[in-house]
Amino acid sequence: MGAMPPERRINLSVLKRQGSGSSVKSNRGCDKVQSHVEKIPSKQYVATEFSTNQISEDTAQQVTVERSNCSKSDVTKERASGDASQAMKCLEDDSYDVPCEQLAKSLLGKILVRRLDSGHVLKGRIVETECYLGEYDKASHSFKGRMTERNAPMFMKPGTAYVYLTYGMYHCFNISSRGPGAAVLIRALEPVEGMDLMADLRARGVKKKKPASGEGEEGGSRKAKSKNFKPHELCSGPAKLCIAMAIDKDSCNKKDLTTWPGLSVVHAEGAGEGEPPPPVVVTKRVGIESAGREWADKPLRFYLLGNASVSKRDREKERDLMGRP
């Protein structure tokens, strides 16, 4: 996760292991998504980037995390997958309330589902995860038990979304687990549904970084750029998947994945029945050299062997796993 700038400290007892950080005023999102939705202009799908604002005194004093009005009794345990003929079971509290490494491994092969306000559904199979163990992990944002407004979701109940901004422009998506300040970073997805929209969002993300002179946001080059993405490239990295899945701090941070219909993890029922699961490669994390060699080399990253969407392969570990020289 890398080093963090100094931030205002907040009272641990205020936020520790509470629920979602936002109330849902409508139960519209709790209903099953219809299989047919009217196409609306693509300009509504822009993956907006948000900057981290200074924490005010009022925020520091009044940060209380409210449970979503959309309670578990309102959210069906069998949520729609976007296809009215099929439903997949969401992970519940006990699935997340496990040690960080166990959660990181168990999430592999599960489906991350993003439901947009437009009614569109994006889905991707989790193929790469990375765990951050909390207060004693030098690479974690919560090292030494430090809680700030930024990393507060890491101290909330297991199954809370932690979305943060890095390099001032990219988002990363994590899920809290058991243990103070422990969370799993979702590093890569294999796209399952909504790939055209994912490509459109990715193209817009590229264009925001490198605007083409003389072309508006709805210019023809945007569509051409969308076609350049191969399916396995759409979500092959922490920032890429956030852009492709429209996951950002403003809309998804502090959400309870067991109750909020906008973002959830579901079992991939019916997929690959009768087939053994792919072997899991266990290797070191990516980009945390500043934490020191001891923590940089710890085997806390997990990915499915042979999956093209993995962000970074460890070929030596793969050979060892396959028993090849």
Automatic annotation (TrEMBL):
Enzyme category, top tier: hydrolase
Keyword check for Hydrolase: yes
TM segment ranges: none
GO biological process entries: base-excision repair
Pfam families on file: Pur_DNA_glyco (PF02245)
Listed EC numbers: 3.2.2.21
Entries under InterPro entries matching the protein: Formyl_transferase-like_C_sf, MPG, MPG_sf
Keyword DNA repair: yes
GO molecular function, one term: DNA binding
Biased composition regions of type Basic and acidic residues, renumbered to the chain: 1-10
Alphabetical keyword list: DNA damage, DNA repair, Hydrolase
The protein's role, per its UniProt record: Hydrolysis of the deoxyribose N-glycosidic bond to excise 3-methyladenine, and 7-methylguanine from the damaged DNA polymer formed by alkylation lesions.
Subunit structure: Binds MBD1. Binds SSBP1.
PANTHER family: DNA-3-METHYLADENINE GLYCOSYLASE (PTHR10429:SF0)
Entry's family note: Belongs to the DNA glycosylase MPG family.
Name listed for the protein in its UniProt record: DNA-3-methyladenine glycosylase
Organism name: Frankliniella occidentalis (Western flower thrips)
Organism taxonomic ancestry: Eukaryota, Metazoa, Ecdysozoa, Arthropoda, Hexapoda
Gene that this polypeptide is encoded by: LOC113208876
